[in-house]
Amino acid sequence: MVVRPRPLWYLKNKRIQNVEDMDILSVTFNNNVKYNDYVSTRIQKAKRSMFSISNIGMSYPGLNTKSKVHLY
Q1: Using CA atoms, how far apart are residues 46 and 32, in angstroms rounded to an integer?
Q2: Neighbour count for residue 22 (Cβ, 10 Å)
Q3: Which residues contact 29 (CB under 8 A, 6 or more apart)?
């Protein structure tokens, strides 16, 4: 595997820092054009949301089994 040096970027004679990944409007962009980090973050947020509403009907006996299966 050949490791290439990172290019140097300048804007008005000021050097711009190179980063591995960046969040813009909750979308994670990285230098190898993969969306794994973004997808993982979205899944984690969805799980947190589901568990945060567990005390308002998602737990037994508040919701029937068919509804729980549909939501999961």
Answers
A1: 25
A2: 10
A3: 21, 22, 23
Neighbours of 63 (CB within 10 A): 15
- Alpha helices for the chain (secondary structure H): 36-52, 65-71
Q: Where are the domains positioned within the chain? A: 9-71
**Among candidate residues 41, 22, 43, 42, the one with its CA nearest the CA of residue 33:** 22
Distance CA 30, CA 44 (A): 19
CB-CB contact of 45 with 36 (8 Å): no
* Spatial distance between the Cα atoms of 63 and 72, rounded to a whole number of angstroms: 13
51-70, pLDDT tens digit by residue?
777 666 555 666 777 777 77
